[in-house]
Protein 1
Amino acid sequence: MSTPLPSHPPPPRAAVLTGVGSCLPPTAVTNDELAERLDSSDAWIRSRTGIRRRYVASPGTATSDLAVGAGAKALKSSGTPDVDAVLLATTTPDRPCPATAPAVAARLGLTGAAAYDVSAVCTGFLYALASGAGLIAAGAADRVLVIGAETFSTLLDPDDRSTAVIFGDGAGAVVLRAGDAAEPGALGPFDLGSDGGREELITVAAGGSRQRLSGVPPATRDQYFAMEGKEVFRHAVRRMSASARSVLGRAGWRAEDVDHLVGHQANLRITHHVADAVGIPRRRCFSNIAEVGNTAAASIPLALDQAHADGVLTPGGRVLLTAFGGGLTWGSTVLTWPGPDRA
């Protein structure tokens, strides 16, 4: 009687990036156009943010419209029109209820796919990316479309110089498929975190249950996005740096192994401070904030699509992603950029 051979469990499934896409509204607003209204100047805005222009959605456009545009391009890039799940990271859904992701999925011809929104402000895309990777690892999905889309202009006080010059609208997306952890394009370990004790640093005070059940009509300023800039800067640098170092260590990478740091496009000075803290040369930071501004949850996938289109991200390049946002929330992951037939 033969002895049965020992069985070995199959290797764990990894999420592999296989398509990218983005969508910007057609209207660009330059610093000079804003400076006329805000008693500012192009030089002042660029020196403090690194931004030259940003894109703003026109009346009649919604977050879902930008999400559909980016999602369609990512699906085309991946070479297949079908996925099992659609995850939409956004702070500006089309409406409070229902979630926007199912409508986006339906418009992309993906009716029947699982679809839900992820809300983590500027860290939203990384949270959604981790969620998509988790669905694949668990066997709940073989292919996932992950979108970051925002119409952040709808949250801004147009006369607030501290925020109106920073944010823009847009969407970016990636497609993930089940694969092997050793493949190019496979997402590495994730580091995610939060600190709700500092939620007041980045807020829109009105519109939620706390304000509506207070019995007090909202003040005008409470209906707009507000941010304590200096404190946010400090926390962003500290949290993104620590998170980035964590995933590098877990991936077995050294700082000098990183070919490209693609951080949340909040402020060029924040990106450079994070690079300095982690030990990555500033020249390895990819930034498109000058052209699109801070697009919140859309910023990392927008940057990935542009860097890919510009030939900055080349096959085999080691990429570090890191973000920080309201909540407070933060997160990081790594991947080796796939070849041209995969992205």
Protein 2
Amino acid sequence: MAKKLVIKVTAGADAPERCSQAFTVAAVAAASGVEVSLWLTGESSWFALPGRAAEFELPHAAPLPDLIEGIRAAGGLITLCTQCAARRGIEEKDLIEGARIAGAQVFVSEAMADGVQALVY
């Protein structure tokens, strides 16, 4: 089994099932003891802001705030893409607790490390 799972989610409310799958996989992996790094890009960027995940709804899916809390509680890392943040006027001070902003170089470094599996949704 991979020591670390890096997940890049590009979808938000525009593709709710794909978005929910990414957060669900991240939360389940984190709860299973896998080190998780969840990258928010594109429309999922908005979920790095307080309260925005609570606005997301998908029938028969776990609420995003619960999934995010599960990821963070297990020590998972949530990162907002630098360019995506800039395009939306989001700054580090705006983020949910424990989230960060980082760019492609950091993503590539994480995804290419030994023992890492990377998924894109």
